[in-house]
Amino acid sequence: MLIVIKYGPENAAERGKVAMAFDDDEIVLLQNGAFWAVSPEICALVDRGIKVYVIESDLYARGYTERESFVPLITYDGMIDIIERQEKSMG
After folding, report:
1. Confidence of residue 87 (pLDDT cuts 50, 70, 90)
2. Could you report the per-residue pLDDT of 25-82, keeping only the tens digit for each?
3. Which of 26, 63, 69, 90 has a Cα at 20 to 30 A from 50?
4. Terminal alpha carbon distance of the chain
5. What is the Cβ-side half-sphere exposure of residue 45, based on CA atoms within 13 angstroms?
6. Residue 33: enclosing H or E segment and its boundaries?
7. Which one is the CATH code of 2-90: 3.40.50.300, 3.40.1260.10, 3.90.1150.10, 3.40.109.10?
8. Side-chain half-sphere exposure of 16, counting CA atoms within 13 A
9. 36 - beta bridge partners?
10. Distance (Å, whole) CA 48 – CA 30
11. Cα–Cα distance between 67 and 82 in angstroms, integer?
12. How far is CA 27 from CA 50, 89, in A?
């Protein structure tokens, strides 16, 4: 499943979505969800083998660099590839 996170770590609904992620899921962080990419707590998901990505333009717009991100950067075109790959999505 594709899980789209668009609000920061302080958002309870987003925390719930992150907590429900399974090994086959892919998470895309966009808009204010990009704040998760620089939060050490995202490392627990990556350590579990869950694929997590951040939209590069959203990360940069919030003043962060690729070096500060704990997850790989993708473009919106890359997100489309994930949408096509995953049968289900949660946003």
Report:
1. confident
2. 999 999 999 999 999 999 988 998 899 999 999 999 999 999 999 999 999 999 999 9
3. 63
4. 10
5. 26
6. none
7. 3.40.1260.10
8. 5
9. none
10. 21
11. 23
12. 8, 10
**Residue 39 main-chain phi, psi, to 5 deg:** -95, 125
- 3-state DSSP: the chain helix, strand, coil percent, rounded to 5? 45, 20, 35
- pLDDT recorded at residue 7: 97
Look up residue 64 and give its two tokens.
Answer: 């962060």
Task: For residue 24, give Cα distances in angstroms to 15, 36, 86.
Answer: 18, 19, 9
Residue type, 4: V
Enter the pTM of the model: 0.92
Query: In the prediction, which pLDDT does 13 show?
Result: 95
- Tokens 């969800």 belong to residue: 33
